[in-house]
Each structure stands twice: as C-alpha cells, then as structure tokens.
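hiii so um. not sure if this is the right channel but i have a protein structure encoded as tokens and i wanna go backwards to a sequence. like what aa goes where. can anyone help
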C-alpha cells in the first residue's frame, strides 16, 4: 500500500508548512507596529523557511530549544500512565509528597531529556479522568488523492474516545482558537474515517501554565469528511509544489516516499 503513495506527510509537518505560509501575518502581529523590530519581515520569513526545511530533513531540535516540547511530552506521558495504570518506559515519574504530610501527594515530577517538570496532581487527575476509557497513542494513516499523486497522511493520536479524537497541548500563553489553523483536527479524523471509524469531531485539551497558574481550555472542531478532504487536498498540493521547488534543499527522501532507505 505505502509504495503506491508519491508523498507522505505527517500532521505536524503540515503545521510547520502552515506556519511558513503565515510568516508575514505572524511578523505583522508581533512586530508590524514596532518602530524598531528585532528582525525584518524578510529575515523572519527566511527563519520560517529554514525551520520548515529542517523539519522536513528531520534535523534534531537543539536541546536549548526543546524545553516546551519536552514539557508537553512529559505531561502527556503522565496522563497516559495514569489512564493505563502502568509505569512509563520513556521517563522517570515520581510522586512528590506534601511538605506538611508525606502521606499526601501534591505533585508529580517527570524527568525527561535531563529536565525536570512538575505538575500538580489534581491537574493530572483531572485530565486522566476526562479520558477514562480512552486508547492512548493510536497510530493512524490514510490516503489523500491529489493532482500530483496520492499522499499518505499519518500520525499518532494522543487520546481516542468512542467517536472523538483528542490532542493534549501545553502552552505558556493561550488565546481563543489558538489551534484553529493546525492540521491535526483534519488529518486524524480523515484517516480514521477512511478506516471505517465514525468520528464526530476533534478536541484540543489545553493546559496553560503561566506565572504559577494552571488553566484548562478546550477547542472543539466538528468533522465533515468532504470538507476536510477538500481542505487537505488544497494544502497538500501547495506543499507538494513547495517541495518540488526546493527539492535541492531536501536531504531526507522519506517525504517523497522513498522506501529504499526509509520505512515508516
């Protein structure tokens, strides 16, 4: 099956492409009204371009730049472990007792990539109870027909409930509908629907950690197969055009479904 696909994209790669497409809009949001911006619009666009090329080529993220990613991974793993009742095989997770009474657990501490992350136990339990009965880290894939050939879409779902897909996010700053341009809420339900699963929608479950406060937010997107397919075709065809125009900069051939040296 996979050998028939001309390209293969995972969901967060489409998010990186979307960020590149939105570079001018993002620059204007943060620096457009500044008399002395830290970087010009052209400089920012070049940064976004290189970031996208690095992601396509699977260049490892620098340790000093990966803290936010590691925090999200740690929180997801804690929630998954509570749901399954199993210990983690990815990181060390420990209970932190109260300073006043060591029989009372107040927080959970995760050690990952030589970093320590601490999350309040009530927050961790709140998320795990919400996802009671969920299947965690579910792989999905589907075929998207485009004018440039079939594209294999794939990725891992954080939590899969009966007819709804969930993705857990951690962020230091949240604003309403922050993830509306993300492609996960189209890709994952689309792949599941192709496999015969009835999916009603997608929900981002967001933990905002800011100035010692922990706030929970939710974004829900209903799912329509035909609408999602049309949106995915449009962005994937645009992405293919970008890839072919910059093929000389791409060193990892996996995105072109070159299965000689790479496998999923």
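sure thing!! here u go:
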């Amino acid at each position: 099956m996979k050998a028939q696909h001309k390209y293969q994209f995972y969901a967060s790669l489409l998010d990186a492409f979307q960020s590149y497409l939105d570079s001018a809009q993002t620059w204007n949001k943060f620096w457009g009204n500044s008399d002395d911006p830290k970087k010009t619009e052209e400089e920012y666009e070049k940064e976004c371009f290189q970031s996208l090329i690095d992601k396509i080529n699977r260049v490892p993220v620098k340790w000093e730049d990966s803290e936010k990613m590691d925090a999200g991974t740690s929180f997801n793993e804690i929630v998954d472990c509570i749901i399954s009742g199993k210990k983690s095989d990815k990181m060390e997770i420990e209970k932190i007792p109260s300073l006043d009474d060591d029989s009372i657990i107040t927080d959970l501490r995760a050690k990952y990539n030589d970093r320590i992350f601490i999350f309040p136990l009530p927050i961790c339990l709140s998320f795990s109870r919400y996802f009671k009965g969920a299947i965690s880290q579910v792989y999905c894939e589907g075929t998207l027909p485009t004018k440039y050939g079939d594209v294999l879409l794939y990725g891992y779902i954080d939590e899969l409930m009966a007819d709804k897909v969930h993705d857990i996010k951690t962020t230091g700053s949240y604003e309403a509908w922050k993830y509306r341009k993300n492609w996960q809420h189209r890709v994952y339900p689309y792949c599941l629907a192709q496999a015969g699963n009835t999916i009603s929608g997608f929900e981002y479950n967001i933990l905002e950690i800011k100035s010692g406060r922990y706030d929970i937010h939710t974004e829900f997107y209903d799912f329509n197969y035909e609408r999602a397919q049309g949106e995915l075709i449009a962005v994937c065809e645009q992405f293919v055009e970008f890839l072919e125009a910059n093929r000389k900069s791409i060193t990892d051939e996996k995105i072109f479904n070159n299965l000689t040296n790479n496998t999923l």
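oh and The chain has two domains: 1-29+39-60+135-250, 63-132.
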